[in-house]
Structures are given as structure tokens and as C-alpha cells.
Specification:
Elements lengths: L18 H23 L3 H7 L3 H7 L5 H12 L1
């Protein structure tokens, strides 16, 4: 996979005044990344999400069973 398509690690301070903007931008980039590799690899979105977050964010979603539930947890935290 082209390194330019890979999203950077999500590492947002939830208390930051820009947290919502940072989250929305990161999620948009992640979804574009997923679309780019989906046809070729059919990856598990939850696995990819967990691989692209910092330790502190991983702790928030580690028990999520689906991508949608992890996304909901992060949306509730950052928006």
C-alpha cells in the first residue's frame, strides 16, 4: 500500500478545542484509505482502525466488536 494513502495515527487530546475538527478530518482520511484498499484486500475495518490509533485512543475502543461501534465511541468522545 502506498505510504501516502495511509492515515497517520489518531492521537487527539479530547480536551483540545480542535478535537472535533481533528476527529472529522482523521475519520474522513481513514475512510478514503479504506476505500482505496477495499477492492484489492477486503480488510477488516475494525482491525485497521485499531492499528491506526494511539495507545490512549485504543483504550477507548479496545472492547468494540465492530467498526461501527468503535466509530460511535470515538464520535461520542470527540464531537
Amino acid at each position: 500500500m502506498d505510504k501516502f494513502l495511509r492515515p497517520r495515527t489518531l492521537d487527539i487530546d479530547p480536551e483540545s478545542p480542535t478535537a472535533a475538527d481533528e476527529w472529522e478530518m482523521w475519520l474522513s482520511n481513514f475512510k478514503e484509505f479504506f476505500k482505496a484498499i477495499d477492492a484489492a484486500l477486503s480488510p477488516d475495518r475494525l482491525v485497521l482502525l485499531k492499528a491506526h490509533v494511539s495507545c490512549s485512543i485504543y483504550k477507548l475502543i479496545k472492547d468494540a466488536k465492530t467498526f461501527e461501534s468503535a466509530e460511535g465511541i470515538l464520535k461520542a468522545r470527540f464531537l
